[in-house]
Amino acid sequence: PETGPLSIVVLGASGDLAKKKTFPALFHLYRQGFLPPDEVKIFGYARTKISDDELRNRIRSYLVNDKGASAEQVDDVSNFLQLIQYVSGSYDSEDGFRLLDKEISVHESLKKSVEGSSRRLFYLALPPSVYPSVCRMIKTCCMNKSDLGGWTRIIVEKPFGRDLQSAEQLSTQIGELFDEPQIYRIDHYLGKELVQNMLVLRFANRFFLPLWNRDNIDNVQIVFREDFGTEGRGGYFDQYGIIRDIIQNHLLQVFCLIAMEKPISLKPEHIRDEKVKVLESVLPITYDEVVLGQYEGYRDDPTVPDHSNTPTFATVILRIHNERWEGVPFILKAGKALNSRKAEIRVQFKDVPGDIFKCQKQGRNEFVIRLQPSEAIYMKFTVKKPGLEMSTVQSELDLSYGQRYQGVTIPEAYERLILDTIRGDQQHFVRRDELKASWEIFTPLLHKIDAGEFKSIPYKPGSRGPAEADELLERAGYVQTHGY
Ligand code: BG6
Fold first, then answer.
1. Is the peptide bond before 159 cis (omega within 30 degrees of 0)?
2. Is a pLDDT exceeding 50 seen at residue 484?
3. Considering the entire predicted model, what is its pTM?
């Protein structure tokens, strides 16, 4: 790994994302020795005029919960917070960024004895509306100036635009300032342990290889459920809706990994090439394969307009036009305020031909990857019911991570992705053409929804969502399996 003074700048340092995700992820990296104090300084940047200590105090409670923290953890927190310095300034004027650059340069000159060249990482924990101006300011005022090499990289968060046109516009604006290898578009689902496991499962296991196609697989579901509503984020959420918030990015990334062809190597560009290909093979969405919902009470949020039609739930079927997948529905489903919190992938196989056991009523073979909570991979299959009778029952081959990998801490998605950025590995980040292809899939549907031509069906909070979504699932061929 590279060495040299490393400056990590968190822009939007007093915002929600920074407090809840970015700083805790940096803290975990620090605790594991990935951010050595003799190289690293973390700069918080935002408009509010506060002191270093005020920022540290705001962050502290998000790092460990005070009750459970050991003395060692408390020490780690204090040492970590000492690495943080605050700089206040606006997002569209040079003064603040010049000051930031000065502070970074001070840090770099103090670390002159550290071998290696300077590295500058800018994390934009900000609304995308300010990306263009912030990127321009970084480019004008804050680039790494070392003669010895080193780098400047930026991390940007979704939403990258609202539709194809705005996303392309944003990409062009940023692309005029930074080269693609400097831009890390984060989709935190790509940092989740079991999402990262997908390619291994598919391509390192002999028994999946011949089965992973239209001859054997009947349908695939990629499901995201949350058992809470938009809680305090109604104003943001209402401008985007569940398709832009979850499906077009998180679920679609998972979809790529399930459906793509085998990359010729694990090089990030080879993997991303395959993702783009499968995205470009998706057929236009048919509107009778879409169900939208909105939970009752969503509009009670004062920041949500009274007549909002924004979906908080959606089921959308994607179909791929290629040799492997022709005819197989990929059912992407996401909802807020549902009956449980879960994200999982369910690959359902076709019925066994010539079934002599008459067992199909009990269900089909199913391969399930539970991303969260409690990571697990399991296979539903049919066995003889133990006992004197010859009858069958659905059972499970179960790899639950909590049991199998006791004592292993699964890293947080953000932690992994920030480390990847420091290491210069773009495999788990979204490339510009991938982003474009993903917006191409959803933009016609989104425009229809925005024009008020597609109604969201009301559903009760704490329910499974609109009944119409279950009907759509059944029409797509999904068969509910019954456990033991
Ligand atoms: C975010 C969405 O990207 O992902 C949120 O904006 C959602 O609405 C969150 O709650 C879910 O992430 P996770 O990791 O908790 O599944």
1. yes
2. no
3. 0.95
